[in-house]
Model the fold of this input.
Amino acid sequence: MKIGTLEDKEISTFLTGLNIQASSLSLEASALIQTIVKGHPFYLIKLIQESYIASLLRGDTHIQTEDVEKAVNKILFDNKSFFESEWSKINAKKHKGLILKELIGVAIEKNKELSLSYKSQLLKELKDQTIIDEEKKFVDVFFELWLRKEFE
Done:
């Protein structure tokens, strides 16, 4: 489901004032979260939650970048089956997966079979499926992260 995104300033203000049971974010952790979630409200909250848990498990009340990185890996692991299923559905149609790989910057061989009109049709399908938006950016930022880890 495509939901609206938050402005960077709103996220920054929120993260700066965030205090979870006397736990706060380092400036670096806050910046990393903001970079990763790209304004996505659900993943903002999910990443904060998982980062907080990671900091508690580490025995600290201050959330650091290492906690955010652990949280990202946990979210990717928890959603791996879903991402694999989505990738399988996308890849079922010839060349659709190649277009997504191209969008994340994976070097692919240019395929002579892929006409511009067919590529345009596939991009429209990816938009209609809310995989990408009108600017050809991924709607699900963690699906994009998963793809990058899988193919880069």
